[in-house]
Amino acid sequence: MDxxxxxxxxxxxxxxxxxxxxxxxxVVERDPASCRxxxxxxxDRLGQAVSLFDMDVRQVDFRxxxxxxxxxxxxxxxxxxxxxxxxxxHRDDRDMFPRAVEVVRTVRPNAFIFENVRGLLRKxxxxxxxxxxxxxxxxxxxxxDRETWPRHxxxxxxxxxxxxxxxxxxxxxxxxxNAADFGVPQRRERVIIVGFRWDIKxxxxxxxxxxxxxxxxxxxxxxxxxxxxxxxxxxxxxPVPTDVQQRLGRMETLPLSARWRTVRDALxxxxxxxxxxAARIAxxxxxxGARKYPGHTGSDLDHPGKTLKAGDHGVPGGENMLSFxxxxxxxxxxxxxxxxxxxxxxxxxxxxxxxxxxxIGNAVPVTLARVIGASVAHTLANRSRCLMDLK
Length: 391
Hints:
Elements: E1 2-6, H1 12-19, E2 23-28, H2 32-46, E3 52-53, E4 71-74, H3 97-107, E5 111-117, H4 126-137, H5 149-162, E6 170-178, E7 189-197, E8 211-212, H6 213-221, H7 225-229, H8 242-249, E9 258-259, H9 263-267, E10 299-300, E11 321-323, E12 329-331, H10 334-340, H11 353-362, H12 366-390
Parallel strand pairs: 1-2, 1-4, 2-3, 4-5, 8-9, 10-11
Antiparallel strand pairs: 5-7, 6-7, 11-12
């Protein structure tokens, strides 16, 4: 299934969607360092030369793909809505949702997938987020010259409630998902927006979580299987936290889901980056200077990692550190961070540590992209088979 990827960054979403069965016929990314990462990995490892447009998405003519692709996807820059950013929302010139809507209007894909930070659902952005959703539902109701976005929102609301059944329309749903619930060793909440073109008569819903915190706690404190897997002797196992003990006491049966994956799960077979063995592993170099400060104490080995962050001015120390049981900390290496985002080990980042960490911190976890993409691909494939059966 052919797809177009917008705002590709380091390629996490594109790679996951590729694994789910989508072939990118166009990948758009204006950042030169991110383009180096894409060029380094896609032709060499996936056996296809990525059709990369290394330019601003506003400079690409998308008319050549009209009615020719199954999917448009991307992660519009999240800084306007990020809790860690300046919270300027639609007033931020990095807000690319209007351009994403324009691409959907031009290309007319059968479906789209867009990702953004959970801050998009904050109360202060609620009205604008509703505006984004209505634009995606009715991309042909275009904002007029000199029309304010609140006035355009009013017209979209009128169109939505009028019962008009003509023109390009999409059925749109969104959900805040935690990547840890789908096997990513990181607690990373993101808003996923999915739309199907109105003429595609197929039901779809977000995939159900496959992993859980309850299952991890049961594996640690009821069965002990977690510690057994990692060969942690009983003398070195931490005591059961009081709040966990109370919850487990109310647990009548073991959870059926898989357990959340932890930092230890993700990094267990990697050597210490300060050891000679680390030199043989790409992107696994030690970075000095990590320190704890209030509210930023790093990720615990035996929990899913905290959300990796990109940062506007270098790597944010507290979120991108590994915290050991003895209280010491160090920065995650690029390879370790890539594993927490479920990039495969063959996927390399050919830039500086700071730039590579920025790309990884901005990425969609590959596993999460694959799970959602596979569900969308399954719906589109079933729809295609139904159409063939009718011929």
